[in-house]
Amino acid sequence: MKRIILSTLFTLATIYVSSQNITIKGVVTDKSSNETLPGVNVIVKNTSIGGVTDFNGKYQISNVPKGSVIVFSFIGYGTKEVRANQSTINIALEEGSQKLEEVVVIGYGTQRKKELTGAVSVVSNETIENLKPTRIEQALQGQVAGVNITSSSGAPGAASNIRIRGISTNGNNNPLILVDGNVIEDLSVINPSDIASINVLKDATAGIYGVRGANGVILIVTKTGRKNSDFKYILNSYSGVQQTTRKIPLLNATEYALLANEAYAANGEALPFTNIGLLGQGTDWQDEVFKTAFIANTDITINKGTEKSLYSFGASYLDQDGIVGGSKANFNRTTAKFNFSTEILKNVNLTTSTVYTNTNRRGLSENALGSVLFNALNMPSNLTVRGDNGDFTLAPNTGVGIEVINPIAQAQNTYNKTKVNKISGSYGLNYKFLDYFSAESRIQFNHASVKSKAYNPELFYGSGKVFNTVNTFADLSDVINNSTVSESEQTYRDYTFDAFIKYERVFNDTHQVKGLLGTSILKSEGINEKNLLGFGANGTTLASVSVAGADRFQDNLELSNAPRKFFDSRLLSYFARLQYSYKDKYFLSAVIRRDGSSNFGPKNKFGYFPTASLGWVISDEDFLKDSKSINFLKLRTSYGVIGNDRIASYGFVSLLSGEATYVFNNQLTYGVALGAISNPEIRWEKQKPFDVGLDMKLFDKFDITIDYFNKTTEDLLLSPQVSGILGVSAPGALGPIVNAGTVENKGLEFSIGYKEAISEDFKFNINYNFTTLKNKVLYVGSEAGVLFGGSFGVGQEPPSRMEAGFPIGYFYGYKTTGIFQTQNDVDNHATQNNASPGDLRFVDINKDGIIDIKDKTYIGDPIADVTMGLNFSFDYKNFDFNLYAFASVGNEIVRNYERSLPLTNRPTYYLSRWTGNGTSNTFPRVTTGTTSNTLFSDFYVEDGSFVRLQNIQVGYTLGSRFIKKTGIDKLRVYVSANNLFTLTKYRGYDPTTSNGSPIGGGLDQGFYPNPKTFLFGLNVNF
Amino acid sequence: MKNLNIKYLVILILLLNTSCSDDFVDVNSSVENSEDYFNTQGDYEKALIGAYDLLQSTYLNVMLGEIASDNTLAGGESATDVTGIQEVDKMTHTPTNQQLRDIWGWMFSGVNRANYILEFQNKTDFTGKTEIIAQARFLRAYYYFELVKWFGDVPLVVDKRFLFGDQFRVDRTPKVQVYAQIEQDLIFATENLPYVQLESGRVTKGAAQALLGKAYLYQEKFSDAAIVLEDLTLKGPYQLVTEYNTIFEENGKNNTESVFEVQYSEQEGAGFGCLQCSEGNVAVGFSGIRNYNGPNFSSGFSFNVPTQKIVDAFETGDSRKDVAILDISAWSTQTGATYSTGFEHTGYFNRKYIPRVRSSEAQGDRNLTNPNNYRSIRFADVLLMAAEAFNRGNIDESKAQLYLNRVRRRAFGDLLHDVTTTGSSLTNDIYHERRVELAGEGHRFFDLVRTGKAAQEINGFVAGKNELFPIPSIEIQLAGNRWAQNPGY
């Protein structure tokens, strides 16, 4: 490989020929204000010859080949091209509008938007400024066709699941995220105000990033200064409040007691409540759990540019409490960023970016049996939060299960904190030589330290509860201290080294050729630094307890076989790209990569992955050139193969990482045992994305993009359930990773933008987009033909499946046709265990006269058929207004937050239950007896479609008179409401939440809802 | 200057490429690779601990076996509390039963861990290796014996692990062949293990003999059973503990009557997410008195509650009754203890295996970490098995009476209750004695099945079907849908 690089280098070098050169100078101004523009790039097209305008907008470049084209470009302004025929060229640049000349970041380089052959979506700085997102994901959701974002939780600091064009892999569906070329895993470490633009690569052209780009690539460019500019300060600040969007209507105490009595009576048991008249409304535990919480953010950015260097410094602080748990769910984030780039020698540029992030997150248990919201929904409404003596009321020890406890006590007794300190850097050298060449090498690193601490004081929630740390109430005050405190620490670090050479030249003004040749290596590792468990700690705050202060402690790393270095994952890649364009009208791009990954066994480490794309600017053809209606029309298509290796390390060998503990001589004795089952045959997962798209601009006002995509994933890497005879359920064992099938995601993306200036004072624009998605499993490689996942209720078979002919992770259970009204109905139906009048009637799918597991079938899937977004904004004089909504249609959600035990509380839909012949054909009877109503059926599957008003905002920018006096460039104040309302039929908290797993997503155990927030803020530039 | 820079860059790229040959992506884990293990005696000993570990998960076999029988009801909190357990109690269990799948997976995990050692048994030599191999073979036999008891024909693998992909190739091995392997393993263990081990909890020659005798008895090989069991009673160091009521207490751990005992500890925490990972006896917490406050015991989940039928099975004057059965209302009256009632409350609890008052070492979740060892094979069981073998094999009625009466004399404290019957009456007396002597210890269901009495004693038991439990349907699918289900399911 290295031989190829070198020989290419020297072959290309010999092509270099010189010709007649002149010197050109001039002034660049802003067309509307006539003010001079410092920092404008002035470059001889397709060469490295050029310079930058100085403080007075002046430039001078020498050695310009006569007759060549000079390109003037400046961020935020339309680019202009002028032929170099005279020695003085003065140019006026126009702000904005010239979208086709916008520069878009693609892999290892940039392209003008016109030249793009891939499906790339751009979220501009403008959009981000309008939305004021607390998280970057909020700026992507609904803004970019083909990108779907769900959050696993609305808790402060919780991660989001970003899916570009559907679910195509089971291991890790997250796209590759690069911030100024530096890979990050978690978007929460970035302050949204630092971002200049976001580009999303959605098709095969992401293949230049190889392996890690298989799920699409999100490229984030942060703000930098402009050359030859003075200090600029940008200050943003907002604060506000957050509230829950919804409370689930629950039975009040009287309704609850009546219903419980009815259920007991139905099973012939004694009634639990005898004096219902006194119960009244009782407690809605949700009112106790949900609180208004604050949020505040401040950030500042300082930019400066000299003739040779750019400086940008930014810092931010975000502080956010949770709507559940308040400060017990607090998240705060401090970031600091320093970007510096300079020309260290002629034609040699140094670019550096360093980011420091500190986050502190506290959290409550969520989306699980016995989590805080789950308990708020299931805790009996006849109980009060505290008893007469001030102690927390205990949940009953019978009738509600062992997980349901007083949620307020639970939140108060939760003490934990995870602190992440992370420093990331990216340092690159770029050298331009021999006119047509440039070479670049770049080193990037991430170093993160994750420290967690949790304190579990002595707890008694009622007899038998799983969260107890003592056995009886009396044990709380005895001499034995049963509290524990745990402290753990991991270090994650990775290094990426990239080096590449680029060649770029235009022949005869018609043939443009660009070549790229490079290599990239990555090493990523995780180290267990500490895992201690202390017994007998004392304190009332997290800070006051520690392992060091405990009575005794154990070192879990010593005791278990957990390795210090728990993963070491590496990649070695070579890549080449050739781009060719003819008359700036026909474009071709082809990429080949060779990737090697340490995650595969010796036979399967390396793979070759080619991708190619084509573009044709039809509007430049003679027959459309003068069209008034079609200003721009481009057809593009792409196809390729991209490898994916995102699985756990060492899956191809069988390691002794299992748990082996037994008791000899009454002492715990530790041994070794097999961990994850190995699969020596695992190989690269191959994604094959096809895309054909049209970009157009009509009547100077409409921007339209249409894409059809069909992405097939072969050799899908999965970790499915496997046969128990392999020993997979042994302590510490795990299933193997397998290449188990083929999944297809196809759909249509459409986006349209309309911009209009009615008058000087009144401008508006509308953007709308939608994406259709059809996910289908084509083939499952296991002998069973089915893979399982997720969980429903307690002790039931997995509800989610992957099976050929169905969407991945579809719900598999009983179909119902109403409710048995009479005993006659029961007798006339296929034999259904435990069925009585008032029970759900299951469909006998296989018509064998018996309702059993063979009658389970498709009853929904968690994948939306259509998602869409709408963005509307207008400016009137000094006011600006922005509205942004998005919607999802056709996804199903499983209601799994009801514990369904005799004495648990229930949602109010039970008021419409069946109570006798003809009373209901939807909601079954209540009984404490055994029924099949609790089995997983379409009764629990709900339509998860929704429309959400995500943001509405009004701003006012202070007049220029005020500004001139104070030296402030811009001062804007605004009020904003996020997530104001959601239209949905879904009965749960939040239809946008999902745990993100491909098989087992869309199961709702009481998701923490995304809060609505009301913000007041200001932006100052000076 | 220009040339200089080119030179640097070319060197840089060259360096990068040479430093990164393809072996950059060959990375070894810092955890040991299972294929490179077994280089020292210590390696064998550590892997053996892994094979022992799964014994603790047999808590479920014991509890569910008891509930399946006519000795106890499922109980719990409500009719829907752990539906898998409720179904087994009513004999309405189906192939989707989660607890049956647990037993299937956990027992095969034990088989695989024992086979891992045996796969590499010839790799490294050292003195004392045979004893390690003998323990591993006993453990494999123990797990396979559980599997044939519950499921009948099961895939058999010898001296190698089931590896990924094997599940699509192996068939269910006929029970006879599985038993043949169990016998071979146990004979090897009897020949290579001592009666007394330095550490309590280790497999002994006596344990191997007792289990071998039991395996013979299950196959009705009465003379083989009689020989090995008699040898054990004569040569083994075991004797009945005088006071029956001390056997199941903390101080009665690993007593002289204990031929094989599964060891538990309360020194490590546990959670519902991985019950098989607990070092405690999970069945004990499940069987405990709901919301109990009072002396001697601590509370639990009120599963596995004895029926009036088993209570009535004890003869008057049998000292074992009050050890096996706790009459909670009488106890409450006597001590002032309080409790609440769960589903199918009978007023009785399985006193041998309900939670005692816990020590200060106890870790949470306490319901899952009870330290009560499971007395898997007691000498009383051995005597009763011997009696049965001599009687049913028509070998020696007087020996059968002798063995039976040793157990009865301890129970009644006199000779007045000695059995003098012969033939099938004696057989029935032995069956009765097994029932009361071993009440609450998980043997009843399988004793009823092997003696053909299950259908007449257990409500809902369907002859020709319920002798075996169903193979979990998901396990059949995961093995490529090739195995036939057990009859009737």
Question: What's a concise summary of this model?
Answer:
The complex is a heterodimer of chains A (1022) and B (489). With 1022 residues, chain A is mostly beta strands. In chain A, 8% of the residues lie in helices and 46% in strands.
Question: Could you please describe the fold and organization of this structure?
Answer:
The complex is a heterodimer of chains A (1022) and B (489). Chain A is mostly beta strands and 1022 residues long. Chain A is 8% helix and 46% strand. Chain A is built from eleven helices and 54 strands. In chain A, the strands form eleven sheets. Chain A has a 22-stranded antiparallel β-barrel. The radius of gyration of chain A is 31 Å and the shape is globular. The N terminus of chain A is likely disordered. With 489 residues, chain B is mainly α. Helices cover 46% and strands 6% of the residues of chain B. In chain B, the strands form four sheets. In chain B, strands 1-5 form a two-stranded antiparallel sheet. A two-stranded antiparallel ribbon of chain B has the order 2-8. Chain B has a domain of 322 residues: Alpha Horseshoe (Serine Threonine Protein Phosphatase 5, Tetratricopeptide repeat). Chain B contains 19 helices and eight strands. In chain B, helix 5 packs antiparallel against helix 6 and helix 6 runs antiparallel to helix 7. The interface between A and B is large, with 113 and 117 residues.
CATH domain class name of the domain at 41-261 and 378-478 in chain B: Mainly Alpha
- What is the CATH topology assignment of the domain at 41-261 and 378-478 in chain B? Serine Threonine Protein Phosphatase 5, Tetratricopeptide repeat
- Helix count of chain B equals 19
Our Rg estimate of chain A from Cα atoms comes to 31 Å
- Which outline of chain A best applies? globular
Cα end-to-end separation of chain B: 85 Å
Strand content of chain A: over 45%
Helix content of chain A: under 10%
What is Rg of chain B? 26 Å
Structural class of chain A: mainly beta
| Strands of chain B, count | 8
CATH class annotation of the domain at 109-231 in chain A? Mainly Beta
Largest sheet, spatial ordering of strands of chain B: 1-5
Main sheet: strands, sense, barrel of chain A? 22 strands, antiparallel, barrel
Give the quaternary arrangement of the chains: heterodimer
Described by the principal axes of the CA atoms, the overall outline of chain B is: globular
Total DSSP helices of chain A: 11
The chain-level structural class of chain B is mainly alpha
Termini of chain A, distance in Å? Answer: 52 Å
Within CATH, the superfamily of the domain at 109-231 in chain A carries the name: TonB-dependent receptor, plug domain
CATH architecture designation of the domain at 41-261 and 378-478 in chain B:
Alpha Horseshoe
